[in-house]
Amino acid sequence: MPRSLFSDLSLPEVRVILPAATVHHEERTEAMPVLQALNQLVPGRVTRRFAHERGALSHWVPVDPAFPVQDRRISDYAEEHEFVGTFTGRFQR
């Protein structure tokens, strides 16, 4: 029997065990169809599908477009890092 009225019949599901987001949360289990799991959970793909507890978390670093050249130190954002090169970008309006 499907978990909900309009879900696929007799198709295998993948159980995703999610660790607790914080000490105030508990481990939880989500189920999804195999095809959806293969599309969503492949290595290298970033998803926040299961992180609704952290909806206010932002990964954006604001920049001021009034300054054409800006320096950003990785050490301000990451405790561990490795130098891989110097890069330049173009600002488009």
Description of the structure:
- This protein is mostly beta strands.
- The protein has one helix at about 35-40; strands spanning about 15-20, 30-35.
- The longest helix has 7 residues, at about 35-40.
- About 0% of the residues are buried.
In short:
By secondary structure, the protein is mostly beta strands.
Strand order of the largest sheet: 1-2
Radius of gyration: 20 Å
**Number of E-state strands:** 2
By helix and strand content, what is the structural category? mainly beta
Core attributes:
93 residues, mainly beta, two-stranded antiparallel sheet, 1 helix, 2 strands
List the helices and strands and how they pair.
Elements lengths: L12 E6 L9 E6 H7 L53
Antiparallel strand pairs: 1-2
